[in-house]
Amino acid sequence: MTDATLITAISLGVTFLFMLGVPVFLIIGYWVIGTTFVLGQSLDNMGAELSNVFVKGFALLAMPLFILTGDLINRSGIARRLSDFAYSCLGFLRGGLAMAAIGACGLFAAISGSNAATTATIGSMLHPEMVNGGYDERFSAATAAAGGTVGIIIPPSIIFIVYGYLMGLSISDLFIAGILPGALMVFAMMLAAWIICSMNGWGILIPLRMGRILKTAFGAWLGFFAIGLVLYGIYTGKFSPTEAAAVTVGFCLIVGLICYPLNRIMHNHGSDTPVDQKTYRDMAVVEGFKLTEIPAITMRSAQITGILAPLIGISVVMQQNLSLLGAQEVIGNFVTGMGGYYAVLFTSMLIVFVSGMILESLPVTIILAPILAPIAATVGVDPVHFAVIFLVGASIGFITPPYGLNLYVASGVTGVPYFRLLRYIVPYLIALIGTWFLVAFVPALSLMLLPN
Amino acid sequence: MSIWTEALAIIPALLSGDSFNITEASRTGGAWVFGTVFTLVGGMIVLAIYRAIPWLDRHFEPTLMVYTYLGMAIIIFVEVFRRFVFSMQEPWSTTFPPVLFLVMTWFGCSWNIKLRTHLAFNEFRTAMPRPMQLACVTLDAVLWLIFCVIVVVTGSRIAANAAMNFQILEGTNNFLKWWFLITMPIAFVVMAARVFENLFEDWANYRSGDPIINQSVIGGDTG
Fold this sequence. Notes:
The complex is a heterodimer.
Chain A: H1 3-19, H2 24-38, H3 44-55, H4 62-76, H5 78-90, H6 96-109, H7 115-132, H8 137-147, H9 158-167, H10 171-200, H11 210-219, H12 221-236, H13 241-265, H14 280-284, H15 294-324, H16 327-336, H17 341-358, H18 361-378, H19 383-396, H20 405-414, H21 418-441, H22 444-447
Helix pairs in contact in A: 1-2, 2-15, 3-15, 4-9, 4-13, 4-15, 5-6, 5-11, 6-7, 6-8, 6-10, 7-8, 7-20, 8-20, 8-21, 9-18, 10-19, 10-21, 12-13, 15-18, 16-18, 17-18, 17-19, 18-19, 19-21
Chain B: H1 3-16, H2 19-26, H3 30-52, H4 54-86, H5 96-115, H6 123-126, H7 130-164, H8 178-181, H9 183-208
Helix pairs in contact in B: 1-2, 1-3, 2-7, 3-4, 3-7, 3-9, 4-5, 5-9, 7-9
């Protein structure tokens, strides 16, 4: 048997295992083991890389830290305040709560860097309210899943960190480049939610009142401060992304621990009290958490990191084997054979989209970015612009069946079965694909905020 | 030397405590035999310890995960603060957190095996008849165990090599790198224990008629 036949057999074999429900980590792991034998190499390389990826990857530390930030802002009550603010601004529109959920995802994403954390937090927080507010539960779950996609585009972002780490690009530049496309994704999804809700008459309208907006904005001041802290660090370059993540974690820990006793001393109303019944004094501090709660909060983040980090490690080895097998040349020849600038761009987008349907976004990025980015650069696509195009595509992969991580997370936190929410994800998918093309056609959307 | 002799030769090498001898012995084909026995027996021993001390079953990996996680966050945060305020920073502050990340990652991987929260496409599996479901979860266990053996053998070789070369963790004077690198094969032995635990539970569920596959929620049960 030729090497090509063997590799095809290995790839088909692991695809079969994937369909049988074998964990993705093992799928990639066994592909790596099989191809290592075909390449006639030692498995020692795999063992070495599974530790080296972490031991030598200070930049990668931003990933667990931004995941922890997400859980801290959720538990401290900051996330709730951000969603209250979003609802105050958008509740007067038909589908206001759905739009607020998407807006809250955008605000949450500006502090955390994880799509799964964004979906889980906003989904578990707003799904019951949406169902009580007359929304279809499938639409509500789909909204949480779709809203979570911006978690990795609006900075900070785990996947930008991985991309920058792999491709040697400035992670700060990538973060800045993600701001406008992320905002555009939020806007497009809000538009989709508004259209769907208007057609179905879903949602209870609340009057637009400046007093309420100001009060909820005041209540969310700690969230805005955290967003400012991240953006300040990134824009000024005073911290590396990893340090910005640690500073945000430190800020959230301090805020949570100070606010908890402060709240008790001030005898504030609880978090369940409607905003209208709260005073400015109530809104000054968030609920916070006790010192003894920190291990449980950290454990939740650690569990998510324990899923994603091994995937990064094994995907890096997979990427190395793909390079040794000459996949870069094969895919490169195919993509460059398509023609010029737009042909290369759209072929790359198609490859990312299809891969996102069957693989988790981290492996997609680790495997395809080193292959596609150099080709895109040869036809004149700016590396940072291509990174944004690539990663917006990868983020859409979070809601494309059969393998859409956010769909699973949303299904898990809302209890809506996976297959039942697929129909309601379609409008969001259309909105996001439209935005993706806009980002691809207009490089300025990604590049205009970059410092010269 | 036969592969069995090579495998047995690892025991005196380990007992000698000499990193050169260990490295040489672990490079042979017999290391795979030794590694297989070590992983499977080690996994069963760890599982027996978990059964004997349920507190460890519930808290061993979570404790490691939480304190390494907080450790890396606090080290980086404090060092950024010291750099801004006092214009000083410890040289190990960028090398020590990554090894904590290594520890957290692989013990976290083990905990997710216990919780069955590793990402997988379970839609077809859940629709299968019970015997097929049992076959699938058994297949998972076999695949995990083989993978554990591979990482225990190759990861131990890397750690032994680092010990032989007296590699020091960058930025420190006396922290040997192998102290941290060896945690990866140890984590994979713990993973083997979790795989056995799940497998026994699945077979018990099959016999008792309880559901074999339950929907797990990421972040749902954090111990």
